[in-house]
Amino acid sequence: MTISEAIDNTIREVPDFPKKGIMFKDITPILKDVDLSKQITEAFVSELGSMEIDAVVGIESRGFLFGMALAHSLGVPFCMVRKKGKLPGDTIEHAYDLEYGQAIIEMHKDALEKDWNVLVHDDLLATGGTACAAAELINKLEANVIGFAFLVELSFLKGKDRLENYSNNIVSLKTY
Ligand code: AMP
Fold first, then answer.
1. Which atom of ligand 1 is nearest to the CA of 126?
2. Average pLDDT of the chain?
3. Ligand 1 centroid to 104 CA: how many Å?
4. Residue 101, pLDDT score
5. Which of 63, 101, 149, 153 could be 122's S-S partner, Cβ–Cβ 3.0 to 4.6 Å?
6. Structural domain count of the chain
7. Which CATH number characterizes residue 59's domain?
8. pLDDT above 80 for 143
């Protein structure tokens, strides 16, 4: 079985969560499967390992799970992007539009070094708004976005088109 098939077989679809009309892709059954979780980290490393990655940025909160595992496997630092107000140190922030209203995300000012090549990771790519906001934070710290890695991509929402403004290296292990 391919990694894509294994993710498809294991991920749980929850209709109308967190609101009506959303088909939520729940990765918790994947986290329960130790072998699959290891295979996912290995699959990311085999897709990304040839790139010169200096750090992995994970997006709150499900981007922390495989993001940290991936950073460890690559032997590079891990950095958290969090919702405004959660990080204790000096931060930079970026505001972006949601379907209704705005969201603000933050990163510690000292999380990355200038000119580092940084990989952005989250569990799922939908419209791409969140990953683009993370890319903006990376650029504000004068580091480079070297690529993006997701477990799941909802390709019908065309998030990839927006990410290509930052990097063409976009890895999704399972595309719907
Ligand atoms: P977007 O900014 O539209 O690409 O949304 C991506 C963020 O929202 C990620 O952090 C995802 O975890 C979450 N998300 C969006 N849509 C879904 C979905 N259908 N199932 C699970 N998570 C989702």
1. 4
2. 97
3. 15
4. 86
5. 63
6. 1
7. 3.40.50.2020
8. yes
CA-wise closest residue to 89 among 103, 107, 101: 107
Does residue 18 sit within a domain?
A: no
Q: What is the pTM of this model?
A: 0.98
Q: Is residue 30 part of a domain?
A: no
Question: Of 82, 93, 99, 142, which residue is the catalytic one?
Answer: 99
pLDDT at 74 over 90: yes
Give me the domain span that covers residue 91. Answer: 50-175
* In-domain check, residue 166: yes
From CA 50, how far away is CA 52, in angstroms rounded? 7
Residue 45 within any structural domain of the chain: no
Question: What are phi and psi for residue 32, nearest 5 degrees?
Answer: -75, -20
Q: Residue 52 has which token pair?
A: 């010169």
Nearest-angstrom CA–CA distance, 39 and 100: 37
Cβ of 124 less than 6 Å from ligand 1: yes
